[in-house]
Amino acid sequence: MTASVRMPGAIFRVWTIVILFIALKAAGNLSLAWGMKHFPQTMSADPIPYILAMFDPFVALGVLALILALLMRMALLSLADLSYVLPVTAIGYVIAAFLGKTFLSETVSGQRWLGTVLIFVGAALVGSTSHSTTGAQTK
Amino acid sequence: MKWTLVSLMVVATVLSDLLQSFEMKRAGEQSVGARGLMRLLREIARRHFLILAIGCMAVSFFSFMALVQTEPLSFAVPASAASFVLETVLARVVLGERISARRAVGALIVLCGVVLVGG
Which of A24, A51, B24, B29 is the most buried (most CB within 10 A)? Predict the structure, then answer.
């Protein structure tokens, strides 16, 4: 919080990257899951099916989105501590459950929703503790 | 089998994150414009721990691919939060970041969540 007072520009930049990261990660995971579920070969320790799966359009699109998300996350880690980055991106777990239910027709039990919400709450609790970002320390 | 894949994914993710965080802190602040991304890519090639981090990430990613093929996305993604618990512990031990009691409780709640999601 102190960082937002001292460095509004840095905080805005951090949150822009956070939102981009969450959106790319969610879209990437959905596309990848869709592609993998429709891929005819079952994955094992053999690396060949993984390579072949990469040529599936949905898997390829998912991989591309996840690579972009990864670059966003690396940029984010250069601005903020790992123990700050992890909690603020935790909403992704809830989004994944919604996407699975909505687009992949998954049955999400009450217990699974509770678990997902606990994961989010736990992460938010961690995030609500005071944290320093390296961005707040730069000139 | 699903927990084997989750474990492999989690350990590889944690190793990758610690190596990334360690090296990116040393690299200094990065921008996200086109030139910034090019500079980031050059930085990755120059730093060996980042290459190792990418190797761990590949292992984690292939485990995730295998996991989402057979398990629901609503299990695979939340289950990957187990890495959050392990990372909080290792961020304290390896990176020397300060972890408060409240933060530790949060990590424990996440752990309970992961157990429920998998049940």
Answer: B24
